[in-house]
Amino acid sequence: MIDDFAKPKQRRQSVPVRVGNVTVGGDAPIVVQSMTNTDTADADATVAQVAALARAGSEIVRITVDRPEAAAQVPRIRERLDRIGIDVPLVGDFHYIGHKLLADYPDCASALEKYRINPGNVGFKAKRDTQFSQIIDIALKHDKPVRIGVNWGSLDQELLTKLMDDNAASENPVSASAVMREAIIQSGLLSAERAEALGMGRDKIILSAKVSQVQDLIAVYADLASRCDYALHLGLTEAGMGTKGIVSSAASMGILLQQGIGDTIRVSLTPEPGGDRTREVQVAQELLQVMGFRAFVPIVAACPGCGRTTSTVFQELAGDIQGHIRDSMPKWREQYPGVENLNVAVMGCIVNGPGESKHADIGISLPGTGETPSAPVFVDGEKVATLRGESIADEFKQMVLDYIERRYGQGSSSSTTDAA
Ligand code: SF4
């Protein structure tokens, strides 16, 4: 008998970091975050996108602060978000001139809840340490945490060259990719040590070490996690478009999360032209939910369909219900506490339909080709109805809504406890 075979490892213990109203690390739930792709100097577009990301479930949103015009808008963006009731913490993404922007725009420094520093481009040669210290000093003054975010695309070249030279002179040289991974890890750890030496507490430091290859990401984070107890921000950089981006992110982060590694995640998808930026939030949530770490929206299980069903009714119904649930979640979260744990099944025929439907909270087994045109509905494992005729889909949708109201509605005995 296989028991507990696939249980996630106990979560790695990290020092919790407070980012505005959200805790990253420690025992806090794994946080979903995202990043805008608007020009931060365009406050209208940025407010709209931050609001959309937050409403989709992003618990932290990062914005680019790349020039004075952007820094000047940050406090206004914060004010406008507050006015429309969006209290999601904003993180500033700084490269090259972060020290100057934060010093010249103190209202920006104050409006942001965290500063992201890239050790690979915080400054070069003699200026690097000074400019890094300036950012840390400003963070200390404003009592803000930082993320020391290494990215292999902008890795500290001096450090990499030194490690490559040391490796070449070593009696047992390792591969160039192993040296590169070590440089990524050391870059993060050395910068974090420097921040601590400047007076920053471990409870103000989050680390990330992003690369774009799945196996490299797993190796880098597994090593990094064993060498420190800083909270870790997990993400595969430049994951790419569409299914490739989703699969690569899910494969790499899924393995690390299963090992107990990762306190906050971002899925770096490249949106299709004109595509929806909130997709990355949806993917991050679904990754955490399907792995059993958190619940965000009810899950609709649907069979893939096969030659036993020629109708598209079940696919349309599954899509319809999933879409309706996702659209309704901002309201339902308040109205139906616990509804995110609901499981719905929409199945295409009698082979697996009744079995899968019985395992769901509410499920329907639609008729396959040649089957009697009737659809049994199961609620909490019991068959409660058989739907027939043209309106099967509408009737089942209504049954799902009634079930939600009954089980999770205010005043229902199970709205605060798990229902039978
Ligand atoms: S439940 Fe039926 S229709 Fe769906 S995949 Fe299985 S056999 Fe095919």
UniProtKB/TrEMBL annotation:
Binds 1 [4Fe-4S] cluster. GO terms for molecular function: 4 iron, 4 sulfur cluster binding; 4-hydroxy-3-methylbut-2-en-1-yl diphosphate synthase activity (ferredoxin); 4-hydroxy-3-methylbut-2-enyl-diphosphate synthase activity (flavodoxin); iron ion binding. Keywords: 4Fe-4S, Iron, Iron-sulfur, Isoprene biosynthesis, Metal-binding, Oxidoreductase. Residues 300-400 form the IspG C-terminal domain. GO terms for biological process: isopentenyl diphosphate biosynthetic process, methylerythritol 4-phosphate pathway; terpenoid biosynthetic process. [4Fe-4S] cluster binds at residues 303, 306, 349, 356. It catalyses: (2E)-4-hydroxy-3-methylbut-2-enyl diphosphate + oxidized [flavodoxin] + H2O + 2 H(+) = 2-C-methyl-D-erythritol 2,4-cyclic diphosphate + reduced [flavodoxin]. Its EC number is 1.17.7.3. The keyword Iron-sulfur applies. The keyword Oxidoreductase applies. Belongs to the IspG family. Converts 2C-methyl-D-erythritol 2,4-cyclodiphosphate (ME-2,4cPP) into 1-hydroxy-2-methyl-2-(E)-butenyl 4-diphosphate. This is 4-hydroxy-3-methylbut-2-en-1-yl diphosphate synthase (flavodoxin). The gene is ispG.
